[in-house]
Amino acid sequence: MSNVIVFCEHQNGNLKKGALELLSAARGSGLPVSALVIGPGANELAKQAFQFGATKAFTCESKDFAAYNSELYASVVERAIKNSGASILLASSSMLARDLFPRLAARVGGGLVSDCTELAFAGGAPRVRKPLYSGKCTAGVEFKGSGLKIILMRPNQLPVANPDSGKTGEIVPLDVAPMDLKTLVKEVVRGASEKLDLTEANIIVSGGRGLKEKENFKLLEELADVLGATVGASRAVVDSGWVPHGMQVGQTGKTVAPTLYIAVGISGAIQHLAGMTGSKVIVAINKDPEAPIFQKATYGIVGDLFEVVPVLTKEFRKVLQ
Ligand SMILES: Cc1cc2nc3c(=O)[nH]c(=O)nc-3n(C[C@H](O)[C@H](O)[C@H](O)COP(=O)(O)OP(=O)(O)OC[C@H]3O[C@@H](n4cnc5c(N)ncnc54)[C@H](O)[C@@H]3O)c2cc1C
Question: Ligand 1 pocket, 302 CB below 6 A?
Fold first, then answer.
């Protein structure tokens, strides 16, 4: 019988929402579910995985795993797969996962589908869909053969089940033998402006060249603070050096699918749309009524962002704070 292992990414002492979505989907499959949590605090985080459907958690607490290293992580994931006998591995389609899992697939002779937006199980076999050509069409994908099936899902695509706070499970600590690493990560510096990973954010306020200069991003940060949103950006402003690349939404940036995406002073070039048309509600603010972003927007505000954004911030503050 198939069994599923969910690779759980975490941040600030909590499993990321993407991991909770995958655990919920795995539980819904009716197959046995285990979790894999790597890094300091893994044993504590495993308890969260139990509440969302895992009955067993493979953990690696070593501080050597605090910073991501593809060789180290591939070794520990391979060990978890062997111990669990898992035939299906689910992970969020994050930057980390897209670096790690092709290496793992090659090591274990498995199949890999990344960037999936739909996941279903038919008789224990996973079926996925993924967008192609910047979202112009989607492909349904099935796995062939008996090798490990690795599925990388975009976050914010699946529902999160209610946690069962009474549920516990078995924790299986994993050790990795010392190895000669070819690279060593000395330090990871997080982008100060990014409060929550864009790919996981429920609300995003994104700014484009219409903001005119770097300092005007403050307007978006104020609106984002009131809404509890994360700030994103178009490539034009990233290329201008106003904000870091980690904030870029689009074909060569991040693919996001929040409940609400507010595009401010963004024209809606095809490469930007490729990263955000999965958003549930899109609000566009642009002074040009012909801007292509309005073709994708659920609600459009034609106006000067320097007038519209402060009014929105003020009105939302009245209601929300
Ligand atoms: C290979 C490739 C990959 C790319 N990848 C990406 C990507 O990942 N992400 C991405 O975003 N782009 C990407 N681009 C760039 C993309 O083609 C566009 O150049 C870019 O998205 C434009 O950014 P923008 O909308 O901020 O700027 P602009 O296109 O200059 O639009 C600015 C908008 O602001 C409006 N505006 C101006 N002043 C105001 C005001 N006061 N009030 C309201 N509105 C105002 C204007 O009407 C205009 O619509 C890529 C391009 C290539 C070739």
Answer: no
List the one residue out of 156, 134, 150 whose CA is nearest residue 257: 156
Q: Does any ligand 1 atom lie closer than 6 A to the CB of residue 305?
A: yes
State the 10-residue block means of pLDDT for the chain, 321 residues long: 93 94 96 96 97 97 89 95 96 95 96 96 92 89 94 94 94 86 81 70 97 97 95 97 94 94 98 94 98 98 98 94 70
Q: Which residue puts its alpha carbon closest to atom 37 of ligand 1?
A: 210
Torsion, Cα 287 290 292 293, to 10 degrees, reads 30
126 lines ligand 1 (CB under 6 A): no
How many domains is the chain partitioned into structurally? 2
For ligand 1, the distance from its centroid to the CA atom of residue 316, given in whole angstroms, is 26
Q: Is 264 in the pocket of ligand 1 (CB under 6 A)?
A: no
- Global pTM reads 0.81
CATH code where residue 259 lies: 3.40.50.1220
Q: Which residue's C-alpha comes closest to atom 40 of ligand 1?
A: 304
Beta bridge partner(s), residue 171 = 57
Residues 6+ apart with CB under 8 A from 128: 113, 116, 118, 119, 120, 140, 141, 151, 153
Strands 10-11 and 14-15: antiparallel
CB of 286 within 6 A of ligand 1: the answer is yes
Which domain covers residue 242, as residue numbers?
Answer: 198-320
In a domain, residue 67? The reply is yes
> Which CATH number fits the domain that encloses residue 134?
3.40.50.620
Strands 137-142 and 125-132: antiparallel
Name the phi and psi angles at 54, rounded to 5: -75, 145
CA–CA gap between residue 56 and residue 54 (Å, rounded): 6
Distance in angstroms (rounded) separating the CA atoms of residues 299 and 294 = 8
Residue 251 beta carbon below 6 angstroms from any ligand 1 atom: yes
Regarding the beta carbon of 232 and ligand 1, being less than 6 Å apart is answered no
What secondary structure letter does DSSP report for 124?
Answer: T
